[in-house]
Amino acid sequence: MKIGWGKEIKQGKTLSDNQIVSLLLKKRGVKNPVEFLNPVHPKQIRLKDFSPFYEKKLQFCFKLLEEIKEKGEMIIVYSDYDADGITGAAILWETLHFLGFNVMPYVPHRKHEGYGFSKKGIDAIKKQYDPRLMISVDHGITAAEKITYAKKLGISVIVTDHHLKPDMLPKDAFAVFHIPQLSGSAVAYFFAKEIFIRFYKKDSLSHKMLETYFQTDYLALATIGTIADMVPLIGPSRNIAWHGLQAFPFVKRYGLKHILREAGIAGRKITPYEIGFMIAPRINAVGRLEHAMDALRLLCTTQEKKAYELASHIGNTNRERQDLVEQSLKEAKKMVESIGKIIPKLIILVSDHWNEGIIGLVASKITEQYGRPTIVMTQVDGFFKGSARSIPSFHITDFLRDQKKYLVDVGGHKQAAGFTIENARVKEFIKVAQKKADKLISKKDLERKIDVDFKLPLSRLSVSLVEKIQTLEPFGVGNPRPVFYSEGTLVDAKIIGKMKNHLKLFVADLDKKRLPMEFVAFSSADQFFSLKKGEKMKLRYTVEVSTWQDKTSITGKIIHFDQLGEKV
């Protein structure tokens, strides 16, 4: 994979700390630095701020909810089975429950019902609950046909979603709240907050508890959903994540407590890393391999023993998921290697036995390794289910929608999508899709680019600069951690890590005016024996401040390094 520079970089040698931070904000398109660095609390954000039409829609919804509450009719919160959907369902279901509504959550089984509304799911709900209303969480915008079906059965549907709009919107929905710049859980958060404000009673203890939850528990849950779904951390999603991460220490619910315990991060400061790599995968694992209702039960239970048991079970399920991904990924890599030297610009891999719940993870890892959009398909109940992941320059959902004549259904985002296809159409679809992708994707699109923000001598780095950079947190999609480029001299190196697969490098500035700085290069131990003390190196890296035994220091995390061989 070719390494490119990415965007134009700045020379940071002569700039002050504040100038560097100011340029980083400008590069990220921040027009209001004060608001970015001190985001408004989500409690001050209303649905009408996203669209002036939502105020009128809300009034219709409130009227329907008042009627439902008065008659004691049933409401179903129908969510997606991933971390974004489950956290959103917890927020909305609890809000309606504590406000005195007759409400039940419903999470479809991935294998038996599939994503979103299905006739099978709607029929089951009608038979068991006969509800007046269903409210979607993290799905529904592409389900026009299913919503019409529900309406014919006498069930009204309110859609809360953030996925890309299809050509045909659900015209038979009672109301649609579609906010693409938020996660599904965040849309549910703001919708639930509007319901809470409308039905709030000052003399109710449960209502007062809800008021606290919207500033702590629900904000933390919406943050999990936002980061898990890789929503850009800009605009209102930054407001959610910035305040939500700060809310974690105040969350007392047993479910989150025991997820943190099981993940081995209890007591640790929660950052996007802990959510993206420790918390969300555990919530997602249940929906991938079993029934995600257990994840929802875990988040909502008021019994600590139950929370302990469910968290332990979910941890075991996550380990099973990791094993399945590892096995399937080995097979997938062999398939790619068997293609030959010229790998297609769009990789498509097909199996008749991979678990449907993990094909998206396999696609993601293949895309990461080979730098190409990847579609992974597996056979499920007479059809093939597909999951796709893409590179930044290639809109995979739009691409798949252009091939919709081959597909039963399709939905997703710019860099991730899912679809269903009939067995008989798979071969033709692969042929056509790869041919079209070959024309649409350029060689430049396939170059791996490292977007370096500043070129700095190592001696320019300081604790004060890094601490100022950390005011831009939380970092993530849409607000990446700043990347620096420096040249230096290798002083020492050693292999580290439980599996002995990482490197720790000690690199001095070229002028050797300061002590060597520590860098960690993950999964790079295979380069250890080619390293030579005293040789010149080029580093692209991120920086963090860490404190150990009252000593504060800077650590660099290497993204890529070049050995120049020459000694300085």
UniProtKB/TrEMBL annotation:
Gene3D superfamilies: 3.10.310.30, 3.90.1640.30. Pfam families: DHH (PF01368), DHHA1 (PF02272), RecJ_OB (PF17768). GO terms for molecular function: 5'-3' exonuclease activity; nucleic acid binding. Transmembrane segments: none annotated. Keywords: Exonuclease, Hydrolase, Nuclease. It comes from the Bacteria. Residues 75-209 form the DDH domain. Residues 345-436 form the DHHA1 domain. Residues 452-557 form the RecJ OB domain. SUPFAM superfamilies: DHH phosphoesterases. InterPro entries: DDH_dom, DHH_sf, DHHA1_dom, RecJ, RecJ_OB, SSDNA_exonuclease_RecJ. GO terms for biological process: DNA recombination; DNA repair. Belongs to the RecJ family. This is Single-stranded-DNA-specific exonuclease RecJ. It comes from Candidatus Roizmanbacteria bacterium CG09_land_8_20_14_0_10_41_9.
